[in-house]
């Protein structure tokens, strides 16, 4: 489990690292957090890390958006408009949780018990400082560990060893 506070630059950097691993391992990623916490910003960075080259926007009205990444298809869902988990079936939810490709879901709490048991849960929240986001990540089931974001100290150490 990771728990930290990140500025938006660090959030995007971490997102790119998450995306590379999630795409390679075909991880289902459930994102939780209030409006403005940075869920879409994080998913945009995740998609960049997964090799998506087209613009990534929140699928608030389409509910599911498909992208082509370096290793194949990537799904990005936004469940904000879902009021009951029974509304997931028309979204081909079974395909989304199949593990055939990485899936990134905003407002994952709206899926209730329909979330797959093997997944990452990323919880974002606002900090007292509006330039920071608190982040908590945990791997459930057989999902690989959520990578920790690089800290300033780790980045400085990497630069001195190059």
How is this fold's topology laid out?
Elements: E1 2-7, H1 8-25, E2 28-32, H2 39-49, E3 64-69, E4 72-78, H3 93-96, E5 103-106, E6 119-126, E7 132-140, H4 152-161
Helix pairs in contact: 1-2
Q: In a few lines, what is going on in this structure?
A:
This protein has a single domain, classed as P-loop containing nucleotide triphosphate hydrolases (Rossmann fold), CATH 3.40.50.300. Helices cover 27% and strands 28% of the residues. It is built from four helices and seven strands, in the order βαβαββαβββα.
Give a written overview of the molecule.
There is one protein chain. With 162 residues, the protein is of the alpha/beta class. It has one domain (2-161): Rossmann fold (3-Layer(aba) Sandwich), CATH 3.40.50.300. Helix content is 27%, strand content 28%. It has four helices and seven strands. It has helices at residues 8-25, 39-49, 93-96, 152-161, and strands at 2-7, 28-32, 64-69, 72-78, 103-106, 119-126, 132-140. Strands 1-7-6-2-5-4-3 form a seven-stranded mixed beta sheet, with helices on one face. Helix 3 (93-96) links the parallel strand 4 (72-78) and strand 5 (103-106). The longest helix is centred in the N-terminal third of the chain and has 18 residues, at 8-25. It is globular, with a radius of gyration of 15 Å. The relative contact order is 0.24.
